[in-house]
Specification:
four-stranded antiparallel sheet; single chain
Length: 450
């Protein structure tokens, strides 16, 4: 039995909580730890200079405050999505409005959204406990791919493994380390803030072979076409890999190398701002695209807080979008999003394989006609980095919601039409952002109340 599996299977509830506390301390005091881990302390100090950052770089929020009446109303609107899309029998929340399917990433967003809603007083502790209990019971019943790990997607009512188009896939289509990293981070928050759920969380995790998600410290996912064998490969999407590695680290998965900057990190100017990204990969590989989007950096800030690596990377990302606004007049906040028309999901990037402001579909095809203002990215940046640009982003949120259904994904750049896709991810991130305003990073502050 490996160390990781032994840790997850441990029957000592106290040891599990102590392990989480130790992991939390390492996250909080990550400066010296990350420098030792990477062995290139100088590169952290030089990162702002390498990205061309100076005193004009956006300043992160440093104070926490209560929500305004309008923000309280926003929280209730975001929660409406959860009310409308929770499956009664399983407790799972549809990833998209009225569409009975979810990914493991969306399950992580669901858990974060539940925790944020309770933190904000939108739901009470009894409702949170009931919902969380049903969800954990469902996760314990999920059919696993080859008996190892959860499938990438499930039908939210039947719990059957499915493809991304929600068609049945009895053998499963593989697993995603990135998705499970987000779920692991959400479980950690619940274990800290609601320890009564820790035994059930431990039971769920101990039945999954989480150590399979990393090899030699690098995150690995698995995919299968049809009835063929599983093919494992590194999951290295820029921004997402270190974010997911942090979540998995908190439950004992050895993904240390995935938390580091790539030694071959590239820097490219976009709208006059230097942006870091992965080195190009051969187009024959499954990583034929590598969009640099806002979402993982927004999640880093509101969940873990900043360190010497993540802060300058995020500042550069936001600056590029601010400079595009100044140069083109187009208010810019780009990220991956569902859209309300074919191809239904796109990656709106700052850069993708050397192409600034590329927007691509999941298969890598051009989707620039669907480039959008992403609401979750806009509000994330606005609350992380207050300022005049953030005020513009917040103002642009007006009209991008239905009080009875939740927040829409955003607005199309081409014609200004509303992108009326409704998703758990957008609404969960908005709840997280609002909770962040009141208490700071959710995981760093998880052991105390405001």
């Amino acid at each position: 039995m490996t160390f990781v599996r032994g840790l997850l299977a441990s029957r000592a509830h106290g040891a599990f909580l102590v392990g989480l506390a130790v992991a939390a301390s390492i996250i909080v005091f990550s400066r010296s730890w990350e420098e030792r881990l990477q062995g290139r302390a100088r590169s952290f100090r030089e990162l702002p200079e390498r990205l061309g950052l100076d005193a004009a770089a956006p300043t992160p929020r440093k104070t926490w405050e209560a929500l305004s009446p309008k923000e309280q109303a926003w929280a209730r609107v975001a929660w409406r999505y959860f009310e409308n899309n929770t499956q009664t029998e399983t407790g799972l929340v549809n990833a998209a409005d009225r569409y009975p399917s979810t990914t493991l990433w969306d399950l992580g967003s669901c858990v974060f959204g539940l925790a944020a809603a309770e933190e904000l007083g939108v739901i009470d502790s009894t409702s949170f406990g009931s919902r969380m209990g049903r969800l954990l019971d469902a996760l314990a019943r999920l059919p696993l791919v080859d008996g190892q790990l959860p499938n990438k997607a499930y039908h939210t009512a039947t719990l059957h493994p499915v493809n991304y188009d929600n068609s049945e896939a009895p053998a499963g289509v593989g697993w995603s380390a990135l998705d499970l990293g987000r779920l692991a981070a959400a479980f950690t928050l619940v274990s800290w803030s609601h320890p009564e759920h820790t035994p059930r969380i431990r039971q769920v995790l101990s039945s999954w072979r989480m150590e399979r998600l990393a090899l030699d410290g690098r995150l690995r996912g698995a995919s299968r076409d049809g009835s063929g064998p599983l093919i494992e490969a590194r999951e290295a999407t820029f921004g997402y890999e270190p974010y997911a590695a942090k979540g998995l680290f908190l439950i004992g998965v050895d993904a240390g190398r995935s938390r580091q900057l790539d030694p071959d990190l590239r820097v490219t100017p976009v709208s006059g701002q230097l942006i870091a990204h992965n080195p190009p990969r051969p187009r024959r590989t499954r990583w034929s695209q590598d969009p640099v989007v806002s979402e993982p950096f927004v999640l880093e800030g509101i969940e873990f807080g900043w360190n010497e690596t993540t802060l300058p990377l995020a500042q550069a990302m936001l600056l590029a979008q601010m400079k595009r606004r100044a140069q083109t007049g187009v208010l810019t906040a780009v990220s991956e999003d569902n859209i309300d028309r074919a191809p239904y999901f796109v990656y709106g990037s700052v850069i993708d394989r050397g192409h600034p402001w590329a927007t691509v579909a999941s298969d890598g095809s051009d989707a620039s006609a669907h480039r959008s203002f992403s609401l979750k990215a806009a509000l994330g940046w606005a609350y992380l980095f207050p300022g005049s640009y953030s005020d513009e982003l917040v103002a642009a949120a007006e009209g991008l919601s239905d009080p009875e259904r939740g927040f829409y994904a955003g607005r199309y750049e081409a014609d200004g039409a509303t992108n009326k896709a409704l998703t758990v991810n957008t609404n969960a991130v908005i709840l997280e952002v609002l909770a962040y305003k009141t208490r700071g990073p959710l995981l760093r502050a998880a052991t105390r109340k405001p």
